[in-house]
Structure formats: structure tokens, C-alpha cells
Design brief:
This protein is α/β, with parallel strands linked by helices. The protein is built from 22 helices and 13 strands. The strands form 4 sheets. It has a 6-stranded mixed β-sheet, sandwiched between helices. β9, α9 and β10 form a beta-alpha-beta unit. α15 packs antiparallel against α16. The radius of gyration is 38 Å and the shape is elongated. The two termini are 33 Å apart.
Length: 570
């Protein structure tokens, strides 16, 4: 449902004087069209002397109105709108015709009429919220302009206008008009408190609403608060309505035409600033994707409602499509989606390096549960990389799609089999195939490869092995930590390690990691770095610029993607 939000202002009520509809309390403002007034002296005079003419008319109604409460004496005569509308409201209940509480007092909706008519007919708005003030009399500076009683008058007048539109156009849809009263504790000119008041109101709205906002009416501070909090809200679809005030039409009681507008560039800057924050501080490519997809849909809506921005937003749409493609790729990287990554021809992907980088990222974000999962994957994939990099696949069954690596006995020399059997006693009882079912079996297989086929690399392997042993405990306990119900943090890791060291380990379980050999949680990333550095060296490869853990070391694909996306978000 589309709703209209507007501050109620004094000039939203007009009174008929000398056949002209004159607005109450109209402030001089820019962009008021006075074209044609000089050619019609009567209208020009009525417009220039509107305050005086209204007061003179009110003075003729002393039998109906308590003028002592209404007329205020200053340098010029003016009126107390709150008391005037209060009395007119009381008169309205005693008359059948709301527009004519007395034959000398004829009222009509002023500036607001054009806004409501546009909202109702063009945007199919079916609910209107009008913000009004009702301040204590001690606030004499602004209290005389309070609009709480003006709302009651205008609601009746608007309902009558709507009935006329329905009859003329054959529309059978009602418009619900409700008031929102600004707290009496808040002055209508207190900008900070008004901002909070409107903020609280926007929090009551559904983010899926389509809202229209009038940028006129109320005090300047109320206008600013409504506008700022609308833009700052999480409501995506919002259009601002600005009545084009033609004085000649206003004097004739006609509804002003309204031009729809939107602050799409300002809204865009807000969205892009949030996306940059997510990427720079949290590496949250998925969160950025959600925001930009929503923004793309919003732009389509805004361009349809405000045609003058269509050309500029089309260019923005093209840019967003390109950015979203990059974000999709980044999310695929984080999800370790190999198929999606292979389809990207622009960026080469190294699965092992990706896991190493995600260990760095999740540790830096203090997302320990995700870190432990990636740590275990990095451990396993490192062993696989070493087996393949050392050409160990020649000893394995030729089935790269198999979940487990299977050592084929008759593909290896007797020396190789004997060495592997020393490290892996269960191998002695196996048939032709022996599945490397866990990390210990893979580790023993790598140890055999090194000692038999690559003895010159034994020292490098021992560097890697030392770090793997220190990580065994964390590999084994990742599920217990994650599912313990205590929450996963560095502190819970420290507590768990201290508790297990105190209890000790069952020596009968050969696959149970020894907590006394585990590294301190704060040293885990250092062991990961050590494994990465020596793996490159052992395989005879040049070390990657992405291997490191100081703040200047790029984060593999993610740094490049983040920087390219942020560069486009300008």
C-alpha cells in the first residue's frame, strides 16, 4: 500500500475573501509562480494584502468567534491559528456543510489539496499521515500556529473533496486520513528532538511500503526532520512531492500540480557508503550484494515514477550489473564453489590459497567458528597439495573424483611399501588398495614420499610437520568447540585447552591429539603461515605475494575484488 506523509501547515487552509481563496499564514518562499497577477489588479491586491483581508473578515464575525482569543496585536494585526481553528472546529459540528460553518466563513483545503490529489490519483495512495503540533500555551512563540485543530477541519474538507473525485472519475477507493501528533514535550523548532520523533515514527512503518513525502508544510525544522528521516529509513521506495504553487490557481481554489522527485543520488551515496564499510571492515561481499540488489530494484521503481531521472539511472543500472557480477564471484569464492569459480575466465583461482586467505580473514573478523572450519579444510587440502605436488598420484588409484585417496600396493616399490608400513601399521593387513581415510594416513603417505622419492626435501617437510602436529588438537576439537553451547571465541579455546591439559589424554586412542603438543590459540595463524611458506618451498614454487599475515599482505582475490568494487562505487 502506498502512503502519504505530510507536515500540516497553516497555509494548508484557505478562507474565501472577496471571491478569492486566501491561505492562512503563508510564508514568503522561493519558486512561487505569480505569473499573470499584474494583469489582474484585484487578484494582485488580494494576494499582497491577504493577512489584512483575513483579519478584517474575522472581525466581522464577532457574533460567531471570540476575537479576543483569535486576533493577536503586534506591529500588524494577525491571528492565533490554534484558537481560530479550535472555534471553527466547534462551529463545524453545529453545521451540516463543513465548508460553510457560516455564510461569511467559507473554508477550503489550500496547498495540501494538490499533494493529496496527486497521491490519490497518480500513485493510488490509500492512507495519509499528517503530522500536527499541540504545544503547551507556555510556548507562546510557536504555540499560536499549532495545527491539532486544523487537522480536524481539513480531514472533513479532504473527505468531501475525495467524494467529488470519486464521483467524477468513478473511483471506489477510500483514503484513510490519520494524524500523528508531535509530542508536547518537543518544540516545533527543536531540530534534534524532532529528528528523534520522526525516527521513531518511521520505525513503525513496514520497510516494503511505498511512501510519498510532502516537502512543504510545518516549521522548517519539521520539514527538515521529515525529509532526513525518510531518506535515512530502510524504506526503499520513496517519492517526494513538491506542489508547484501558482498564485492565480490558488486564489481560484484549484489544486496545485505536484512534481514528483526523489533524492536518488543522495540515497545512492548512503547505500554505497554502507557497502564500502561492509567490504573494508567486514569483507562482507554477500551483505554488499543484498544491499546493491535491493538498490537496483529501487532504481527501477524510482525511474518509473520520476521519468526525468530515467537516463541517469540507466547508466547506474549498467554499473550495478557489473558490480553485482563481481560480488557473485566473491561470494562463490567464500563458499568454496569450485564450479562457479571455474566458470570465471577473468580470474585464476587457487583453492588452497583461498582457504589460507579465509583463515586470515575469519581470524581477523573474530569469527572463530568459521575460522576453525576453514583451518581444518586448509590442513586437509595442504596434504592433498603435497601428495599431488610430489607426484604421489602415480601410487594412487586413477580416480580423481573419489572422495578418498587410495594407495595401490603394486604401483609402489617394496622399499616404498615397507617404509609406509612402518608409519602406518594397518597397511600390513590391507589388500591391494589401502584408503588414506584420515589426515594421519595422508601425513604418513607424504612422509614416505619425502623419505623415498625426495629425501633432499626432508628438512622442509619437518618444518611443515611440526606445525601440523601443533594444529592436530584444534583440528580434532573444532566440532566440540563449535557445538559446545558456550559460544566460540579465543577465550573459550584457551579455556578448553587448559582444561584438556589438566585432564590429560587417553594414550590408547592413537588418533586423539595431545593437548600438550597444541599451540596457543593466538599462535595458530602463525603455524598456518609457516605451513604455507614451507609448502611453496618444498614444492619448488615461488612464494605467493598473498602469503603473509601483516596488514600489508593482500588477501588473495578478495583484496582485488574489494578494491575494484569500491573504485566503481563513486
Amino acid at each position: 500500500m502506498t502512503i502519504l506523509l505530510a507536515n500540516l501547515g497553516t497555509s494548508d487552509l484557505t478562507i474565501k475573501v472577496q471571491n478569492f481563496w486566501l491561505p492562512f499564514g503563508f510564508r514568503d518562499e522561493p519558486n512561487v509562480d505569480e505569473t499573470g497577477l499584474t494583469e489582474q489588479p484585484e487578484k494582485e491586491t488580494a494576494w499582497k494584502k491577504r493577512e489584512q483581508l483575513i483579519v478584517e473578515l474575522l472581525e466581522t464575525q464577532s457574533s460567531l468567534l471570540d476575537l479576543k482569543e483569535i486576533i493577536r496585536q503586534k506591529k500588524i494585526k494577525t491571528y492565533h491559528l490554534k484558537n481560530l481553528t479550535s472555534q471553527l472546529h466547534q462551529l463545524q459540528h453545529s453545521k451540516n456543510d463543513v465548508a460553510q460553518p457560516h455564510n461569511q466563513i467559507q473554508l477550503k483545503v489550500g496547498r495540501l489539496l494538490g499533494i493529496v490529489k496527486t497521491a490519490y490519483e497518480k500513485f493510488q495512495a490509500r492512507k495519509v499521515y499528517l503530522f500536527v503540533t499541540d504545544q503547551p500555551s507556555s510556548k507562546e512563540e510557536v504555540e499560536h500556529q499549532d495545527t491539532v485543530y486544523l487537522f480536524e477541519l481539513l480531514k472533513k474538507l479532504l473527505e468531501e473533496e475525495i467524494r467529488n473525485w470519486q464521483q467524477a472519475d468513478g473511483i471506489d477507493s477510500h483514503l484513510i486520513i490519520e494524524k500523528v501528533t508531535i509530542s508536547q514535550e518537543i518544540s516545533a523548532v527543536d531540530q534534534d528532538k524532532l529528528l528523534m520523533e520522526y525516527y521513531n515514527f518511521f520505525n513503525t512503518l513496514d520497510s516494503q511500503e511505498e511512501i510519498l513525502i510532502s516537502i512543504k508544510g510545518g516549521t522548517p525544522q519539521m520539514q527538515t526532520a521529515l525529509r532526513i528521516q525518510a531518506i535515512a529509513s530502510n524504506i526503499q521506495k520513496q517519492i517526494f512531492l513538491e506542489p508547484k504553487l501558482v498564485v492565480k490557481d490558488l486564489l481560484e481554489g484549484q489544486a496545485s500540480k505536484c512534481e514528483p522527485d526523489c533524492y536518488w543520488q543522495y540515497m545512492r551515496n548512503q547505500k554505497y557508503a554502507t557497502v564500502k564499510l561492509l567490504l573494508n571492515q567486514r569483507w562482507d561481499f554477500d551483505g554488499a550484494r543484498v544491499i546493491l540488489k535491493d538498490w537496483q530494484e529501487t532504481l527501477i521503481y524510482l525511474a518509473k515514477q520520476v521519468p526525468k531521472i530515467a537516463s541517469d539511472t540507466q547508466k547506474e543500472q549498467e554499473k550495478l550489473t557489473e558490480i553485482l557480477t563481481r560480488l557473485d564471484f566473491a561470494v562463490s569464492c567464500f563458499n568454496l564453489d569450485k564450479n562457479a569459480l571455474r566458470d570465471n575466465e577473468q580470474m585464476e583461482h587457487n583453492f588452497w590459497l583461498n582457504l589460507y586467505t579465509q583463515c586470515r580473514i575469519y581470524w581477523g573478523l573474530d569469527e572463530i567458528a568459521n575460522f576453525l572450519i576453514r583451518l581444518s579444510s586448509f590442513y586437509e587440502v595442504t596434504l592433498n597439495e603435497l601428495i599431488m605436488g610430489l607426484r604421489g598420484q602415480k601410487y594412487l588409484r586413477n580416480n580423481n573424483q573419489n572422495q578418498y585417496l587410495a594407495f595401490v600396493r603394486n604401483k609402489a616399490s617394496q622399499e616404498f611399501c615397507n617404509k609406509f608400513e612402518e608409519l602406518e601399521p594397518d597397511f600390513k593387513r590391507s589388500d591391494l588398495l589401502y584408503t588414506l581415510v584420515n589426515r594421519y594416513s595422508k601425513r604418513n603417505f607424504v612422509q614416505t614420499l619425502i623419505e623415498i622419492d625426495h629425501p633432499d626435501r626432508l628438512e622442509l617437510w619437518q618444518q611443515i610437520l611440526a606445525s601440523l602436529v601443533k594444529l592436530d588438537y584444534w583440528f580434532d576439537n573444532r566440532n566440540a568447540l563449535i557445538h559446545s553451547g558456550r559460544g566460540v571465541s579465543v577465550q573459550t579455546m584457551i579455556n578448553q585447552l587448559e582444561e584438556d591439559k589438566r585432564i590429560g589424554t587417553d594414550d590408547k586412542d592413537k588418533y586423539k591429539a595431545d593437548p600438550d603438543k597444541a599451540c596457543h590459540p593466538n599462535n595458530i595463524l602463525g603455524e598456518v603461515l609457516n605451513i604455507a611458506i614451507h609448502t611453496y618451498q618444498l614444492l619448488g614454487q615461488k612464494s605467493s605475494p598473498y602469503v603473509g599475515w601483516d596488514k600489508n599482505t593482500p588477501y588473495y582475490l578478495y583484496s582485488q575484488l574489494r578494491d575494484e568494487i569500491c573504485q566503481q562505487l563513486i
